[in-house]
Design a protein that fits this description.
The chain contains eight helices and five strands. The chain has about 160 residues and is α+β, with helices and mostly antiparallel strands. About 25% of the residues are buried.
Length: about 160
């Protein structure tokens, strides 16, 4: 877990298990690309343990930030997200908590950004320029050059429509 936490600190964020424009925890733990579900991989128990240990850290937030997929985000980039929060849909910055119901099932609960972001990180975000904040994020989330400032979060180009 310590090695993956160090990777998360350096990268700022990792996808939990989905494929996308940044590395994912499941494949980093497995040490190889995973075809199909990671639950069927020989390292599934280790993957599960590492993901849960990261999730339990007070320095990690689970968001649906990149392509709507669970993204583990380290505290060091929370100020950047705070500074650029108007560039993201609110649901992308909502923390996703897993709760256990009385029946034993798991249920995902969304906690709005303003409710989970600590005041210290909010204040740190206010001290950043937009350019400084963007530099802390992976390229796929940095504002696109040009007149618009919406972050780019697509991992693949849009399909081209057939020519007629």
């Amino acid at each position: 877990m310590t090695d993956l936490l160090a990777v998360l600190v350096e990268e700022g964020m990792l996808l939990e298990s989905a494929r996308g424009p940044i590395p994912n925890c499941a494949e980093l733990v497995a040490g190889e690309p995973i075809r199909g579900s990671w639950w069927a991989h020989p390292a599934a128990h280790q993957i599960f343990d590492v993901i849960n240990a990261l999730d339990d850290s007070p320095d990690v937030a689970r968001l649906r930030l990149i392509n709507g997929k669970i993204t583990l985000v380290h505290r060091r980039v929370w100020p950047a997200l705070s500074r650029l929060q108007s560039s993201f849909p609110p649901e992308a910055l909502a923390r996703v908590d897993e709760v256990h119901t009385a029946s034993g099932r798991h249920r995902a609960v969304s906690v709005p950004f303003a409710e989970w972001l600590p005041d210290a990180e909010r204040r740190a975000g206010e001290a950043l320029s937009a350019d400084e904040a963007a530099a802390l994020l992976p390229g796929c989330l940095r504002p696109s050059p040009g007149p618009g400032t919406a972050p780019r979060a697509r991992s693949r180009p849009r399909p081209r429509s057939p020519r007629r």
